[in-house]
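Deviation from plan, reported transparently: adenosine monophosphate complex.
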Amino acid sequence: MSETPILKPTASALADAASLLQSGDVVAMPTETVYGLAASLWSEAGLMRIFTSKERPQFDPLIVHLSTEMAANPKLMAELVNFETLSPSWKKQVAVLTAAFWPGPLTLVLPKTAKVPDLATSGLATIALRVPAHPVAQALIQAAGAPLAAPSANRFGRISPTTAQAVFEELVGRIPLILDGGPCEVGLESTVLGWDQAGRPQILRPGQISATELAAVLGCEVLEATLHPAEIQAPGMLKNHYAPLKPLFLLPPDWQPGQVLPENPAGLLNPSPQAGYLLLAGEPQALSGQLNGPIFTLSPHGERDLCARHLFAALRSLDASEADYLWAELPPESTGLGHAIANRLRKAAGV
Ligand code: AMP
Ligand code: MG
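Because the crystal trials were delayed, the predicted structure below was used instead.
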């Protein structure tokens, strides 16, 4: 394990990965959102390994990944979800959402059965379910023959990995195998949707699939959870998650290159610390005359899908750069993908 191979998803690599999962071990797998660290839902040893290799606290529940075939299998679904406790209208909403968005970056939080291990759900009465669209994830789940619990394949609290190399940097020597499915297309974790006490759908973590899109399909309002810290249901809601090692600050909303910024906002002891910049749009070369540190732009013209795809890799690169602290530009939107990117950046900044 000291080596942790990165393997292309050939038939033999998939067979090796499936047998690791079946014997209670973990495997890093690509999905369209971010790379996941997978274990069989039916293996307590495997679930334990997720927590130990990530240094993840056990209060953080895992998302359970299903193949398309599994999600279409009523018998298996009934082993996971306690459908008897769902009202007819709630059941209908679940059917409508899964038809519209699975496979894809939507996680549904539903009442669980007694068969689902508490370790996967941190003792919550609910299970988080998703069907990833990535063909390698689909193939691995089918080969393993079991639902796979899979949080992001990074150490707890750190930047989520969107390439096999980023998983390697996070977990080398801790896990036996990384399947390389190329860079993740979405780049942000899935939208997590739950239902509140009154049975209204609410977003617990923003992602690519927006409240507006969900509402359009459901024909009812979809709330964005704004919870008090005491009510945090999920560490996706914690401040200070997805964080680089270097101090990260958010640029003022109307900031333009050339405009003066505080010189040492982190109060670093180093007398003239260097700033690094994460900007939404533009050519870094065109900006470098005006900014004196490393600059990463996420897209040519601020396209939000590209910004999301490149966000975590750019944060990693800035963390590895000569910058001592970082400034990041926040998308101003309060909905959609810009809102999801802003959510991750606020957490990276711990504000
Ligand atoms: P990760 O897979 O590391 O991106 O994180 C999984 C996230 O999914 C958790 O931190 C929560 O935000 C969410 N989640 C998983 N299970 C549940 C659940 N039962 N209730 C609410 N949120 C959940
Ligand atoms: Mg995570």
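Confidence is low (pLDDT under 50) at residues 227-232. We consider this an acceptable substitute for the interim report.
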